[in-house]
Amino acid sequence: MNESSLRELGMDLIEERQFERALAVFAEAVRRVPADHRSRMMAARCLAELGERERAVTCYHACAEGLLRRDYLLSAMAACKLALDLMPNERRLKDTLIRVHARAVRNAPGRAAVPPPLPPEVLYDGKVDTDLMGLQGEELSNRAIEVLAAADPGGHADPNSRPPLPLFAELDRDTFLELVGRMAWRRVKPEEVVITEGEPMDRLYVLVAGKAEVTRQQEGEPRTLGFLGGGSIFGEIALVTGAPPTATVTAVSDTEVFEIRREHLNAVAKIHPAVPQVLADFAQQRMTRNLMATSPMFQAMPESERGALLKRFTFRALPAREKVLVEGEHSPGLFLVLAGELVVQKEDPAGGVVTLGVLREGEVAGEISLLTGLRATATVAAPRKTAAAFLERSAFHELVKTFPNLRTYLEQLSDRRLKQIGEALRPAEIIDADELVLEPEAA
What superkingdom heads the lineage (predicted)? Predict the structure, then answer.
């Protein structure tokens, strides 16, 4: 039986709550393949379930050290987090997390290179010749910990072959430790929905291991936008802006995530006030990347010029019902939707208001007034919390001089919208009364 089959057997035994037998299976998997850290983590869970908290923590710690050695930083954090849930004040776990953080920020600009603490001394060599699946009771526990607490003898991974730790690397060391201590770790089953499009949420997620699908409703059907793997962060834009998420995220396979709630961030911010700004900056960078890749306005620009264009905008958080454009008044500038939506409405000469459309991520408002010099032809308001990038009037005119392609795109967009406004307000065709009379043959 290979290590993959052993893991599957161990998982089945855990489902049946046969934790001692599962411990034997997972420990045997590690004895055969010391780099099988998933089995180490599951063995640690079994030890905890059997009431052996100290040995469980030792096992988690060995797992974290092995994962750090191979530069699996998020998984190393997960192992430390699960151990801290058992023993919150365990110093060796915090030492390992410090080394995880030091590895994550090694290439961060403007930070001094401080040597991380040395790795801990190895307590066990893991040299057990007995097949552990035939053991039970105290003998099993004693032999298992010799294997599970031993170091992973594998070679070092290339530290530049993996992406830096997302978000966490932007925090200083003490803030990082505080946040890890408060946030939650979750296992998500296949087909389980993590976040739902349009539903308010107060948390963000970091995908530690596994895979998730991102979908969005289009014409009543879910459309796949892409897939997320280890290291992905999602939900942070909704958390920062207050706008509901614009997509649904569903686990495709067994998946592990860190869950960071607003209450966790608020508690950390009381001790480390820089946290909200770090998160806001991170979310804005994510929105910037999304816009440059998907916004129709940026598609009109050479890719090399998109970053310089967006730097001219400033971030605006719009509360619900705020009007960014008022019909009959000059536009203050150009608005670009980052998250949320803007509703476009115009007064109907016949009375009432006509809704002309809804602007979503990547779409702009205010270009007609800016290009023509006339007053706004419609009112544009945020129906709910919305994040937008804003470019004031004077900066807009400088921008379109610098980027002629952008002027061309906005002029074409303006022409289409003016035509749509005209069609929306066109009076219904008047039918002659005689046309309503049916001829006897047709009756």
Answer: Bacteria
